[in-house]
Write a structure and sequence with these properties.
The chain is of the alpha/beta class. Helix content is 51%, strand content 13%. The chain has 10 helices and 7 strands. The strands form 2 sheets. The protein has a 5-stranded mixed β-sheet with strand order 1-3-2-5-6.
Length: 255
């Protein structure tokens, strides 16, 4: 076959394919933009314009995702159930804040020293009270002080106080206190239990604040915190930093 003839045939085929593709694009453009192409010349430039109009038409027909999100958010904000949940949460927080303020006025939330003359008023003024009878010179009393001081802010429902046994002879005798430290647990003004020395804490001076807390929870004088998942180092940093040296005598100090 003549080479020039073959070349001409291939050119005609390629031109035919281009024209067919242009025709499809033209028909597609007519479907999206009817009535505006009747007098338009069939050229590549016109095809570009057709495609641009097609894209614009599709964008106008479909709302943007941001508009949909805004509509959904508006509907959510107007949901009566959500408004009720929000109101209930605010009311609960307000009630809890008021309760904490009332307890603080009663001396809760801190580990305080009291005088013998204030003892009856303190133990009868709150439902749950922990009172540490101590001696200033006893090392084990200082160890107990350290742990109770760490627990007091955490357990607002219970009052934490201490009383110098030397300056409270009447109540030391009345309560039958023979060994120090002695931690007496009161409920509604009645002594319901006590910790004598460290015998319930392993008999050693290096027990942790958490160990004491667990013991007090078991005795029902404080409540376990359900949302507290921190380890001992995270909850009681002072327990690690401010270690008090144990006394030479491994037994509890006596008065």
């Amino acid at each position: 076959m003549d080479p020039d003839s073959v070349k001409t045939t291939l050119s005609n085929l390629a031109f035919g394919n281009v024209m067919a593709a242009a025709a499809r694009d033209y028909q597609k453009g007519v479907q999206f933009v009817p009535g505006c192409l009747m007098g338009m010349a069939f050229s590549p430039q016109n095809l570009v314009q057709l495609r641009m109009r097609e894209v614009l038409a599709q964008q106008k027909a479909q709302p943007s995702s941001s508009t949909i999100e805004e509509i959904d958010l508006d509907e959510l904000m107007d949901d009566p159930e959500l408004e009720k949940l929000h109101a209930d949460r605010i009311a609960a927080l307000k009630k809890e804040a008021e309760k904490r303020q009332a307890l603080k006025k009663q001396g809760h939330g801190e580990y305080r020293e009291i005088l013998e003359g204030d003892f009856l008023g303190e133990v009868t003024g709150s439902e749950k009270v922990i009172c540490h009878f101590y001696h200033q010179e006893f090392y084990r009393c200082k160890i107990m002080d350290k742990h109770l001081k760490s627990l007091a802010p955490k357990h607002m429902d219970t009052k934490f106080i201490k009383l110098d046994a030397e300056n409270a002879p009447f109540f030391v005798t009345k309560l039958g206190i023979k060994t120090l430290p002695c931690v007496i647990l009161f409920r509604k003004g009645i002594a319901v239990d006590r910790l004598v020395g460290f015998q319930d804490l392993g008999g050693k001076d290096d027990f942790s604040t958490r160990t004491l807390e667990i013991l007090l929870v078991k005795k029902g004088i404080i409540s376990e915190k359900k949302n507290d998942e921190e380890d001992e180092d995270g909850v009681y940093p002072e327990s690690r930093r401010n270690t008090v040296r144990s006394s030479v005598d491994p037994d509890s100090d006596s008065d």
